[in-house]
Amino acid sequence: MKKSRYRLPVIAACVLLSLSSCKDDFLSPEQIDLVYNEVYWSSEKDAEKAVLGIYSLYRGLMVNAQMYDRGDVTTGYFNRGWNGGSSNALYLPGNFSDVSGNQKSWGSLESYANWHGFYKVIAQANMVISNMEKMSPGLFAEGRKAALLGEAYFLRALTYYHIACIWGNAPVITDAIESSSQVIDSDKLLINIPRSSDIEVVNLVLSDTEKAISMLQYGNPGTAGWGIRANKGSAQALSGYANLWMAFLKERDGQPFDAHLTAAVQSLEDVVSKGGYSLVGYTGEAAVRQLFEGQSTEAVFELNISVEQGESYRVDKGGIEFLTCKLPPLDGDASKDRASNINFVPFSKKEFIYPEYPQDIRAELFWEAWDSNYDEPFSDVSNVATDRNKVTWMTKFASFTVDPARQWNEYVAYFAEANIPVFRLTDVKLLLAEAYVKNNDPGRALPIVNEIRQRAGLDAYTGTELLKEILQQRTSELIGEGKLFFDFVRNNYFPGVSAMTPERYAQEGYYWPVSGNILTTNKEIEQTPYWNGKTTW
Asked: Do the beta carbons of residue 190 and residue 196 sit within 8 Å?
């Protein structure tokens, strides 16, 4: 059972993870040999270990809050604090006329332009799929070979889906890398393979997802792997996302896309009707806390974060809590609560998140100080924002456990206890509503919208712009979960002031640049067209 928000018991030091504050080491998973030379693929145990290696690499890639930065901070709804938080280059427009300047929007963030971490996950998945497919079914308990292969295909598809949404055109590789004679350098990184089109990347996602769906079974709520190991519902949710993204790409390129809308509807309907999931009632803070601590009835797929299970990290060193959460100082000195070091929501942006506040109860369930009128970051030396209790900060992930091995002068030494959602039922239902509208079936979308609104304390929707209302509900529900910017791109809809101008969107400037390290080591790779001449490298 996970610890509740702000309950601060000391736990046995033997189960804690020791994490370095060095950026290169932060949250890196246990180093796993990508070619697994010590595994002879002779038993189910070998296969299980290899699949868990994919999960470990994927989790290590994602727990640094990069999808929050890419999917939420880029909307401009969050601003960095006076002394810390996410880079403002994520949400400010670039000054590209100043050739020597450093404010070039995403072109200033080379670490986020590097896709090597994603391809390490893919290399592991490729190796697992290639070797496990050769193993005799007799080495496995009934159904286990298919289940493990299904998880591997799902994780490869999910990683390529992220790549498709972030970079668009990218290398596609499905061959296992098993010797130094193949296309890999001394660091086991992908080299000398050109970028495929975004449509080709998503085609692979859809192919892998279909294989995963065929191999996996639905899960059972309350079981050990519920929500944190992929099942058929997880793969169908990914299918829904990938088909809607493909529909967007093909419509952009003037190609037929209706079949992808139909496929998205079918996949998402199956998740809702067959997956065994149910919405969590917003009955109070405790219910919401339990939702984000993980493995709730909404958990379609999420990253497990648990001190008890040895899968956590110090929130004062990194992760989404580092960027979003005030922390109660262990010595009782409120001035050490990190109020000036985290992202906050400026007053001028709040109307875009909860336009029906104060009726909308999510503003109080997901946030502290939503009623604050601060438009500037808090600081003791600010001229206007000097009350730390008026910092509007997100509480979704504010579940912690004290580090018993902390030093005497570490006053906010906590380990994370909140899972990181990838797909949850609210997300899936609202995505289904979007698919219904785009598939010319708005009558089936409206009940979903009203179900979500009713849970939030709102009246039934009576407006005439149903798709915009769906996107509004996705914003109000999923903010902080890495989805919003990609929703806006998929629908060419950017409410509020945004760095995504119509000109940038038309030039596919919603895709990220590629880092100089990749361009230097792989001569087959060309820079993302919009970012030519617009980076600091």
From this structure: no
